[in-house]
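User: What would this chain look like folded?
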Amino acid sequence: MRLQQSSSPAQQVLIMAEISVGKLYKDTRLPLKLKWVAGLNGGDNLLSSERVTKPSLALIGHLNFVHPNRVQVLGCAEMDYLRSLQNKELQQAIKNLFSTDLAAVVVANGEVAPPQLTRAADEYHTPLFTSPLQSPGLMDVLSHYLAQAVAESVSRHGVFIEVQGFGVLIQGNPAIGKSELALELISRGHRLIADDIVDFFRVAPDRLEGRCPELLQDFLEVRGLGILNIRALFGDNAVKPTKPLDLIIQLEMAENMAPELLDRLKIKSQSEKIMDVKVPKNTIPVAAGRNIAVLVEVAVRNHMLLLRGINGTKQFMQRQHREMSRMAKGTSSTPAKKRRASA
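Assistant: Here's the prediction, encoded as structure tokens.
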């Protein structure tokens, strides 16, 4: 599913993420050595789940474990069972297999699909593939691919850029300078993923992956310069298609920030939740004369230290407490020293 932002940041619209069987075949046919043998009219069938199943019990007919809109894999056990059936029983088993809206069927292990199976695939307009790979490995590859393709997602406004190997989302009000900041970071050797709109996919329980919409790939809009082709200007190494999200940078005009937000020591860490994934966040005040690109680079370096357990604020406060304790002990011992000296 996909979450699409509306005009209000607090409102989000839920949309199902889907992928066609034709695109699945195009993207995986080489690594999986797929051959499309039947059901050629079913390329537009949609997949809406990352689950890939082996419907052994569904073939028997008593219990139907075939899930709709999913890829069904037939391995050695399933093909041995089909071969053991008489013609009438075989037709009934195949009918049970296609009793729900399958998206596609894959015959693994180099098995030959029986004619009854190919005829049923053509009749139900369900693509039938064959592969020489073993079914466990084939299912792992398909599951991983579908988990990426149909993961729930949300579109966010901002500029997504790779800084020192970390995925950084730069957020802020319109005309605050997000694109200009991204352009300066790119000129300093960092890489652009997406400008204006970023699609974030939840590819793991605690991991978000940012991707650029196809229409916007390689482009960056800068006021006064128009739309720039970053790949053409800076080379292929200046852009990247995807990157996990590691840090959020929020740009705020310094004069508009409330005093309580100007935490000079940053005692309390900030974070923001995107699809229930907690992402670290830094708020940087924007003012004349401030080099925001350098501040973003240092924010990323500081984030790297925090991941290693090195917190500059805590270290400073611990040093301060130790000094205050030392001074307090020195003060309390002074009267005793004076009494001993007078005696």
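The radius of gyration is 29 Å. If you want, I can go into more detail on any region.
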